[in-house]
């Protein structure tokens, strides 16, 4: 543990230094080396590259026939430094990349590649071999089944499965089938051992041959946490067999975990790593106990129930915590597919090898695979409907609930007492109303607006949209999930996409308030989700324009005023100076202002600011946006009255209102300040 803590601290310091250095690194000529498999998404190649010691997530439009090890020279490109901790409570894609050692994202066009040099290596050869096996599957199976088979055998990097299929498998509770794991390594190593036996190799030559091929296979399928854990465990067991020493399952599991964490100390925070080790531990620890407890069942069915149930006992709490839901039919579906899924994997590997020499024979073998996949897809489609969404539940409580199963299996005599204790905790969590302080969160969604007012388990969303599109809705949904809110109230200030496109992803809305100028199609889409329309909204009072401005939709923005004790805040949508003028006689002074139109020079006029007199102003805008928001003129006017907080610099901004004061804090920069609530004058 001491070694791990030291390694983690040094690793994070190195990553932080690299990220800081990469912020301003923009060479005139960029030379990249591809260090991963290439995944093609539509007309774009996605891969990992290295340059000047930096690990870069690269998207190269219009590229084809790229290989591991190729060196590319670019004169025209766009480099983006990672923006970390953009929002509270949730992890964004840049955070994920940073945790895996990346420092930059790069976008470029294949036409701008000035030079390409091929460099071959053993790892590149392994990936090329894997890609040949992938081509066999694509030539011998229909497109949809081929994509699933390739993901099934060789991991997500081998085939771009659409998000709908991935979501269906996750909701059905069998997403583990689309991850290369212990089953694949076991079958692969068994095939290699059979081959070495046929060749009559001695123990040590056999060990080194299997190790070499095993390492190359792990690298070729993406070296994810699950296959990395399985590969290390196989190597430890293989070493024990070679030196004729007995191996212990728990020691093998923990040694593999130690090895992976020493290699990448942040891996312990990876969801795949946690799920893989939880499932494997439960197979070692719980399956024998469950098998003994179920001795009243027939032998085959007893083992099937034990193997299907054990992993779910430890992985279900993690799945509920990270994904906000649970599949009620996961146990039954796993019991249905486990007896033949190993056969499907074996057929897939054999058909891949056979297809290199005879495609007709591989097609014949994959006829069986096709039938099994059609049956599997049918089952997944049915069982995906058994998934239920859940509010955010503390992980400790989830493991307490999971503990009931362990007590039932290991100590049945304690069941009554444990159930009573568990009921107290569950009821306490259910009746706990949550923090009583109001929080106003300005989410960082890029060039757009998304504001969340939340107290206890009630929330009001004021706009949610961005030029980044659908990712905005996901940010809002995940934040609401973490706050324990399943059906928020919604206020749309005006009908511009950078204010509403994220709202379209909300599954349910409680009360919905729309502007008078909203298009019919948009109103229909949002009202279909709502329980009430234009009812009373929590926390705020709204101000509507007296008449619709046909020329400028910004001036149709609804203004919303928040009053919490003596604290006042004003949210102005994209209202420009002409719209602000209409409300000068009725608006109060405020502690907090959301600047109109992302800090445009046409908003936040001097006359308007002289009326509302904000102590703090929040500007919601995207980093390096094409409109150059916020404008210098608006910043000068706003700075006269108080502090300015910007989502493009500070990340999300959260305001917490207390009885006599309020606090502003930011997610990205860690900026924090407390302010007294001042007396207002009308």
Automatic annotation (TrEMBL):
<dbReference type="Pfam" id="PF03772">
    <property type="entry name" value="Competence"/>
</dbReference>
<feature type="transmembrane region" description="Helical">
    <location>
        <begin position="304"/>
        <end position="323"/>
    </location>
</feature>
<feature type="transmembrane region" description="Helical">
    <location>
        <begin position="174"/>
        <end position="195"/>
    </location>
</feature>
<dbReference type="GO" id="GO:0030420">
    <property type="term" value="P:establishment of competence for transformation"/>
</dbReference>
<feature type="domain" description="Metallo-beta-lactamase">
    <location>
        <begin position="447"/>
        <end position="623"/>
    </location>
</feature>
<feature type="transmembrane region" description="Helical">
    <location>
        <begin position="393"/>
        <end position="410"/>
    </location>
</feature>
<keyword id="KW-0472">Membrane</keyword>
<dbReference type="InterPro" id="IPR004797">
    <property type="entry name" value="Competence_ComEC/Rec2"/>
</dbReference>
<feature type="transmembrane region" description="Helical">
    <location>
        <begin position="368"/>
        <end position="387"/>
    </location>
</feature>
<feature type="transmembrane region" description="Helical">
    <location>
        <begin position="343"/>
        <end position="361"/>
    </location>
</feature>
<dbReference type="GO" id="GO:0005886">
    <property type="term" value="C:plasma membrane"/>
</dbReference>
<dbReference type="InterPro" id="IPR052159">
    <property type="entry name" value="Competence_DNA_uptake"/>
</dbReference>
<keyword id="KW-1133">Transmembrane helix</keyword>
<feature type="transmembrane region" description="Helical">
    <location>
        <begin position="207"/>
        <end position="228"/>
    </location>
</feature>
<dbReference type="InterPro" id="IPR001279">
    <property type="entry name" value="Metallo-B-lactamas"/>
</dbReference>
<keyword id="KW-1003">Cell membrane</keyword>
<protein>
    <submittedName>
        <fullName>DNA internalization-related competence protein ComEC/Rec2</fullName>
    </submittedName>
</protein>
<dbReference type="Pfam" id="PF00753">
    <property type="entry name" value="Lactamase_B"/>
</dbReference>
<dbReference type="InterPro" id="IPR004477">
    <property type="entry name" value="ComEC_N"/>
</dbReference>
<dbReference type="InterPro" id="IPR036866">
    <property type="entry name" value="RibonucZ/Hydroxyglut_hydro"/>
</dbReference>
<dbReference type="InterPro" id="IPR035681">
    <property type="entry name" value="ComA-like_MBL"/>
</dbReference>
<keyword id="KW-0812">Transmembrane</keyword>
<feature type="transmembrane region" description="Helical">
    <location>
        <begin position="249"/>
        <end position="269"/>
    </location>
</feature>
<feature type="transmembrane region" description="Helical">
    <location>
        <begin position="275"/>
        <end position="292"/>
    </location>
</feature>
<feature type="transmembrane region" description="Helical">
    <location>
        <begin position="415"/>
        <end position="432"/>
    </location>
</feature>
């Amino acid at each position: 543990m001491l070694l791990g803590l030291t390694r983690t601290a040094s690793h994070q310091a190195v990553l932080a230094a690299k990220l800081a250095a990469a912020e301003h690194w923009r060479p005139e000529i960029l030379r990249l080396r591809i260090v991963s498999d290439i995944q093609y998404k539509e007309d774009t190649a996605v891969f990992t590259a290295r340059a000047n010691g930096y690990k870069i997530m690269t998207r190269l439009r219009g590229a084809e026939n790229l290989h591991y090890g190729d060196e590319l020279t670019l004169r025209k490109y766009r480099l983006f430094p990672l923006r970390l901790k953009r929002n509270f409570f949730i992890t964004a894609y840049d955070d994920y990349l940073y945790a895996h050692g990346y420092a930059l994202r790069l976008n470029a066009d294949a036409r701008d590649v000035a030079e390409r040099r091929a460099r071959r290596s053993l790892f590149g050869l392994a990936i090329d071999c894997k890609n040949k096996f992938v081509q066999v599957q694509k030539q011998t199976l229909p497109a949809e089944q081929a994509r699933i088979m390739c993901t099934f055998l060789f991991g997500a990097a081998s085939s771009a499965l659409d998000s709908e299929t991935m979501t269906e498998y996750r909701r059905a509770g069998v997403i583990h089938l689309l991850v290369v794991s212990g089953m694949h390594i076991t079958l692969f190593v068994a095939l290699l051992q059979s081959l070495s036996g046929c060749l009559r190799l001695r123990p040590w030559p056999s060990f080194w041959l299997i190790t070499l091929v095993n390492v190359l296979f792990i690298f070729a399928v993406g070296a994810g946490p699950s296959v990395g854990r399985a590969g290390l465990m196989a190597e430890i067991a293989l070493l024990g067999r070679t030196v004729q020493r007995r191996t212990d399952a728990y020691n093998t599991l923990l040694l593999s975990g130690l090895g992976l964490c020493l290699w990448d100390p942040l891996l312990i925070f990876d969801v795949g790593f946690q799920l893989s080790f939880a499932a494997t531990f439960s197979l070692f620890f719980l399956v024998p106990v469950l098998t003994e407890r179920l001795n009243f069942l027939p032998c085959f069915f007893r083992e099937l129930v034990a193997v299907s149930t054990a992993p779910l006992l430890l992985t279900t709490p993690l799945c509920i915590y990270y994904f906000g839901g649970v599949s009620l039919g996961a146990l039954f579906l796993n019991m249905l597919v486990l007896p033949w899924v190993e056969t499907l994997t074996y057929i897939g590997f054999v058909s891949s090898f056979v297809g290199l020499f005879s495609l007709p024979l591989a097609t014949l073998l994959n006829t069986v695979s096709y039938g099994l996949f059609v049956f599997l897809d049918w089952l997944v489609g049915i069982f995906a409907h058994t998934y239920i969404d859940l509010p955010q539940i503390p992980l400790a409580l989830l493991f307490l609930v999971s503990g009931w199963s362990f007590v039932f299996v290991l100590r049945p005599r304690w069941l009554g007492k444990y159930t009573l204790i568990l009921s107290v905790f569950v009821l306490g969590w259910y009746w706990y109303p949550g923090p009583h302080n109001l929080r106003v969160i300005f989410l960082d969604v890029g060039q757009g607006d998304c504001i969340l007012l939340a107290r206890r388990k009630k929330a009001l969303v004021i706009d949610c949209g961005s030029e980044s599109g659908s990712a905005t809705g996901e940010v809002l949904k995940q934040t609401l999930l973490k706050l324990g809110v399943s059906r928020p109230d919604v206020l749309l200030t005006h009908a511009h996409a950078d204010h509403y496109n994220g709202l379209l992803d909300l599954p349910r809305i409680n009360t919905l308030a729309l502007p008078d100028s909203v298009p019919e199609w948009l109103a229909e889409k949002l009202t279909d989700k709502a329980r009430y329309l234009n009812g009373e909204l929590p926390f705020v009072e709204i101000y509507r324009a007296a008449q619709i401005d046909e020329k400028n939709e910004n001036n149709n923005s609804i203004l919303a005023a928040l009053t919490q004790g003596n604290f006042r805040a004003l949210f102005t949508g994209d209202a420009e100076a002409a719209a602000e003028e209409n409300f000068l006689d009725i608006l109060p002074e405020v502690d907090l202002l959301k600047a109109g139109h992302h800090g445009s020079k046409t908003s936040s006029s001097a006359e308007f600011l002289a009326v509302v007199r904000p102590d703090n102003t929040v500007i919601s805008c995207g980093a390096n946006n094409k409109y150059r928001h916020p404008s210098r003129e608006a910043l000068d006017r706003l700075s006269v009255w108080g502090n300015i907080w910007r989502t493009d610099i500070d990340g999300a901004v959260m305001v917490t209102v207390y009885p006599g004061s309020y606090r502003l804090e930011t997610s990205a920069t860690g900026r924090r300040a407390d302010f007294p609530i001042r007396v207002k004058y009308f």
